[in-house]
């Protein structure tokens, strides 16, 4: 059966002919992504997304294309936590030092948003607001003899609801609005929902030291701190969203940016007024001329 | 070929009309243990007295408590996880945090459910966080470690309540502050000793920070516990 012809190197066409004849035959593909294919691979080479390899695979995939796993798999969410300590610190630094021309998303995030920063910054902000508010109430009423210290733990719940609603609903609204306008005007650039959430999350970082400094009982200092924090984090947001809306009509552009800034200001002023109520130096602190305190006294009696 | 036929004939000949009563002569030995008696090395806990079962679990829980008090890098805590210890500690802590300023529900300390939710939801979120960052520890092992490391804070709570029996002035506050700070750092250090090993080195701080925040919040709840006037 063996002839001298058979011992010659066969043409490559024979292999392709064989494959055409029987497409289901087992093949061994030597492309780069077949790292997981052993010698007996079936025709369909699947990328094995097991836990220990998932990290490498998903980070490689991200460079080429966005998430390929469905949103019900664990690896989908793992791709949002693909950050190192230094990266998180750089992003935080970028959020407190806005330089003109430096778009936070394009420059600092480099279009790979993460959810670690926004989530833990929100959690820290919730607790720092509640704890600092509690401390400031305590220090305010230190002089009066009938003041009995209360932990005011319900403030944690209220702070959590407010901060998390802000950090998720406002980016949803902004992203929805920008995407709708982008479709209307047929523009190219737009941010994904996660990038918007990421910007908003990191922009809340400045309020953590601000809330700690709000403990000091000087009213002028508190308003000054609000101003400084607003300028810094507001400019981060403006610098991020201005390039996207600038191609729109003037009115829409200004209205969008103004809304973003106003909502941000409302958050900080609202937090300051609710958690850090100034009590006048009267002997009974519960009768302080403040609406919310009056409501609480009405509820308890 | 003839021998094969001979051997195969009694096995396969007329197979369709053969009854399953075992008249087929089969070659070879069957080593299947028919009617399994309980072997000596089979671990059957059904026959032992209840006292032994309970004591075994209690000993395991106690051993883990000792591990937390002297945190050396051992993997016993990680391998045999159990959630009895964390449950016990959580319930004890939540019960002791009650009985605070009870005259006003609005401005008081955390309710029982709030403490429970913070401890368990906090542990679950920290575990998810460390797994999402690429940690190799399993879900329940991490819950087990975080729960057991609440023990120094529970001890601090007991001490604080004892100190508060003696009065609630400045001195007692300073004593409580020192005790709570020491136990909170002990908790963080103990749980980090177990958890940080499972992370790649460039993400250790990202995993340690939420643990720090978690024990800080629990410490804050303990420190601000004020007895009813």
Automatic annotation (TrEMBL), chain A:
Keywords: Membrane, Transmembrane, Transmembrane helix. InterPro entries: Yip1_dom (IPR006977), Yip5/YIPF1/YIPF2 (IPR039765). One of its GO terms (cellular component) is Golgi membrane. Residues 96-267 form the Yip1 domain. This is Protein YIPF. The chain crosses the membrane at residues 115-136, 156-178, 190-208, 220-242, 254-275. Residues 26-36 have a biased composition (Polar residues). Signal peptide: none annotated. It is a multi-pass membrane protein. It is found in: Golgi apparatus membrane; Golgi apparatus, cis-Golgi network membrane. Belongs to the YIP1 family. The gene is LOC120034491. Residues 23-64 are annotated as: Disordered. One of its GO terms (biological process) is vesicle-mediated transport. One of its GO terms (molecular function) is small GTPase binding. Residues 50-59 have a biased composition (Acidic residues). It holds the Pfam family Yip1.
Automatic annotation (TrEMBL), chain B:
GO terms for biological process: endoplasmic reticulum to Golgi vesicle-mediated transport. Its main location: Golgi. Residues 71-221 form the Yip1 domain. It is found in: Golgi apparatus membrane; Membrane. GO terms for cellular component: Golgi membrane; trans-Golgi network. The keyword Transmembrane helix applies. The keyword Cytoplasm does not apply. The chain crosses the membrane at residues 81-100, 112-133, 145-167, 173-195, 207-226. Keywords: Membrane, Transmembrane, Transmembrane helix. It is a multi-pass membrane protein. InterPro entries: Yip1/4-like, Yip1_dom. Belongs to the YIP1 family. This is Protein YIPF. It comes from Salvelinus namaycush (Lake trout).
């Amino acid at each position: 059966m063996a002839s001298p012809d058979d011992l010659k190197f066969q043409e490559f066409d024979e292999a392709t002919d064989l494959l055409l004849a029987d497409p289901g035959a087992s093949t061994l593909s030597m492309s780069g992504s077949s790292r997981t294919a052993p010698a007996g691979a079936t025709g369909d080479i699947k990328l094995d997304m097991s836990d220990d390899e998932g990290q490498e695979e998903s980070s490689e995939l991200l460079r080429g294309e966005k998430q390929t796993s469905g949103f019900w798999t664990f690896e989908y969410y793992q791709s949002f936590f693909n950050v190192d300590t230094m990266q998180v610190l750089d992003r935080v630094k970028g959020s407190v030092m806005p330089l003109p021309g430096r778009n936070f998303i394009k420059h600092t995030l480099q279009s790979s948003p993460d959810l670690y920063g926004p989530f833990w910054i929100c959690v820290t902000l919730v607790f720092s607001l509640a704890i600092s508010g509690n401390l400031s109430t305590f220090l305010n009423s230190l002089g009066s003899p009938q003041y009995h210290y209360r932990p005011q733990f319900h403030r944690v719940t209220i702070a959590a609801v407010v901060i998390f609603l802000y950090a998720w609903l406002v980016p949803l609204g902004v992203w929805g609005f920008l995407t709708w306008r982008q479709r209307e005007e047929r523009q190219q650039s737009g941010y994904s929902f996660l990038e918007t959430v990421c910007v908003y999350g990191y922009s809340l970082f400045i309020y953590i030291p601000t809330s700690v400094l709000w403990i000091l009982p000087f009213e002028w200092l508190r308003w000054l701190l609000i101003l400084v924090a607003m300028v810094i984090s507001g400019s981060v947001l403006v610098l991020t969203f201005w390039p996207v809306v600038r191609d729109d009509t003037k009115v829409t552009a200004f209205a969008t940016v103004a809304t973003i800034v106003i909502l941000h200001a409302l958050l900080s002023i609202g937090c300051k007024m609710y958690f850090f109520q100034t009590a006048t130096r009267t002997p009974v602190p519960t009768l302080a001329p403040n609406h919310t305190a009056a409501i609480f006294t009405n509820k308890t009696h | 070929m003839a021998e094969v036929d001979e051997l195969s004939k009694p096995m396969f000949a007329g197979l369709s009309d053969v009854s399953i009563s075992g008249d087929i002569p089969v070659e070879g030995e069957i080593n299947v243990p028919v009617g399994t008696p309980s072997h000596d090395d089979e671990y059957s806990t059904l026959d032992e007295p209840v006292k032994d079962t309970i004591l075994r679990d209690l000993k395991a829980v106690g051993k883990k408590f000792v591990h937390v008090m002297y945190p050396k890098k051992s993997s016993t805590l990680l391998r045999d996880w159990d959630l009895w210890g964390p449950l016990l500690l959580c319930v004890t802590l939540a019960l002791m945090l009650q009985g605070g300023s009870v005259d006003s529900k609005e401005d008081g300390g955390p309710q029982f459910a709030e403490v429970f939710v913070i401890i368990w939801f906090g542990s679950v979120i920290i575990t998810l966080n460390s797994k999402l960052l690429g940690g190799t520890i399993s879900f329940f092992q991490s819950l087990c470690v975080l729960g057991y490391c609440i023990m120094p804070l529970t001890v601090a709570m007991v001490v604080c309540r004892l100190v508060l029996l003696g009065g609630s002035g400045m001195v007692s506050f300073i004593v409580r502050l020192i005790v709570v700070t020491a136990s909170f750092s002990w908790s963080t250090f103990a749980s980090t000793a177990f958890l940080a090993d499972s992370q790649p080195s460039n993400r250790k701080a990202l995993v340690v920070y939420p643990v720090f925040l978690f024990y800080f919040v629990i410490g804050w709840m303990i420190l601000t516990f004020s007895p009813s006037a």
